[in-house]
């Protein structure tokens, strides 16, 4: 579903991704972990076709990025640091707008269902600029799901959400995974990641230094695996 080979990303003279190899099968839920500045957001932005690779090959569902970005975007849902919503539209107008962008008709049922799922049914007719950050994040999650994407990319999606909203998001993510959709999520919340994901990849200084399926984690759990991964020397791709 996602195939990344020897991906390099430079900003001017600064190399942020240094030869990332990353392969995700359909239905996997990958938690992408790593310290601040490791390159997680940069990597996710390239998968989301919001940034271009400097070198290397990126394919999503067989489509090459950036050349086939339009086809990729049809199949992707993205929750990033920016909610990408229109403040002067209501919650339901935002979802309708994005639904129409994806060429969907007869959106009434879908919009109502999503607003209920993200806990905004009662605020559906309010302008988004009157929403708190957490409420905007909830709606951004609804926006990312409107077209039932094959792949969901989430960059620290729990940030800014209250306890109820975090649990609501976890339920949505479990449902999405149960339906066979593919998920890649960055997170600093190891307990939450361990609870949700089926695989854990650790990015450090622009390289994936460790990867393990949930069943292959050590008995001490994800924290121990993570710490070990950051202590180990970079295994591949170091330029
Ligand atoms: N547009 C840009 N121009 C220059 N440098 C950038 C740009 N975007 C990101 N970087 C640099 O790339 C490096 C990786 O940043 P990135 O945001 O991808 O890390 P991250 O792993 O997501 O970090 P965090 O956990 O803090 O969110 C950082 O050193 C950052 O300063």
TrEMBL record:
It holds the Pfam family ABC_tran. PROSITE patterns: ABC_TRANSPORTER_2 (PS50893). InterPro entries: AAA+_ATPase (IPR003593), ABC_transporter-like_ATP-bd (IPR003439), ABC_transporter_ATP-binding (IPR050763), ABC_transptr_haem_export_CcmA (IPR005895), P-loop_NTPase (IPR027417). Belongs to the ABC transporter superfamily. GO terms for biological process: cytochrome complex assembly. Keywords: ATP-binding, Cytochrome c-type biogenesis, Nucleotide-binding, Transport. PANTHER family: ABC TRANSPORTER ATP-BINDING PROTEIN, ABC TRANSPORTER ATP-BINDING PROTEIN NATA. This is Sodium ABC transporter ATP-binding protein. The lineage of its organism: Bacteria, Bacillati, Chloroflexota, Anaerolineae, Anaerolineales. GO terms for molecular function: ATP binding; ATP hydrolysis activity; transmembrane transporter activity. Residues 2-230 form the ABC transporter domain. SMART domains: AAA (SM00382). It comes from the Bacteria.
């Amino acid at each position: 579903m996602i195939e990344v080979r020897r991906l390099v990303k430079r900003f001017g003279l600064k190399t942020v991704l240094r030869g990332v190899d990353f392969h995700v099968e359909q239905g996997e839920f990958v938690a992408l972990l790593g310290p601040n500045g490791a390159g997680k957001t940069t990597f996710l932005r390239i998968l989301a076709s919001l940034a271009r690779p400097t070198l290397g090959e990126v394919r999503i569902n067989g489509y090459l990025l950036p050349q086939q970005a339009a086809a990729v975007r049809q199949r992707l849902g993205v929750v990033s640091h920016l909610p990408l919503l229109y403040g002067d539209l209501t919650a339901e107008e935002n979802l309708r707008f994005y639904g129409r962008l994806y060429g969907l008709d007869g959106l009434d049922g879908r919009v109502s269902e999503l607003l209920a799922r993200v806990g905004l049914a009662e605020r559906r007719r309010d302008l988004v600029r009157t929403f708190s950050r957490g409420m905007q994040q909830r709606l951004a999650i609804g926006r990312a799901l409107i077209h039932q994407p094959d792949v969901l990319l989430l960059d620290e999606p729990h940030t800014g959400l209250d306890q109820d909203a975090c649990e609501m998001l976890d339920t949505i993510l479990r449902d999405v995974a149960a339906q066979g959709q593919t998920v890649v999520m960055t997170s600093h919340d190891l307990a939450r990641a361990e609870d949700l994901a089926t695989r854990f990849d650790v990015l450090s200084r622009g390289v994936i230094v460790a990867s393990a399926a949930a069943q292959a984690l050590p008995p001490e759990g994800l924290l121990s695996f993570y710490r070990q991964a950051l202590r180990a020397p970079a295994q591949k791709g170091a330029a």
